[in-house]
Amino acid sequence: MTAFNELTPGTWTFDPAHSEVEFTVRHAGISKVRGTFNEVSADLNVGEESSVTASVNVGSLDTGNADRDAHVKGADFFDTENHPEMTFTSTSIESDGEDFTLNGDLTIKGETRPVSFTGEFGGVAVDPFGA
């Protein structure tokens, strides 16, 4: 398998059918809530100045609880009616070959903040459908 730091230079587009953003948050300081955003589009530009840009459809949030999801998508939290997407633009990428850390700017509801995300590189595959 190709390691993250061995990718051929150029632009790599994440496969939206096989990509998701997973998260875990603490609820009331006691329990953990896990969920996913199932509609993600992202590009990785590999080269001297490697970067990642991503857009997430906030309405694709799924925590496994419809009532909670509706509340979090509402005006109290994400306000998906007025802010249907969040975006991420990397400022640096650190990799040990398989795992990586993305540092960058996350914009949610018009507010941009610096963040760091960890990820796992799953490899490269040729689209079997020729796209």
TrEMBL record:
Signal peptide: none annotated. This is Polyisoprenoid-binding protein. Residues 11-131 form the Lipid/polyisoprenoid-binding YceI-like domain. InterPro entries: Lipid/polyisoprenoid-bd_YceI, TTHA0802/YceI-like_sf. It comes from Rothia koreensis. Pfam families: YceI. Belongs to the UPF0312 family.
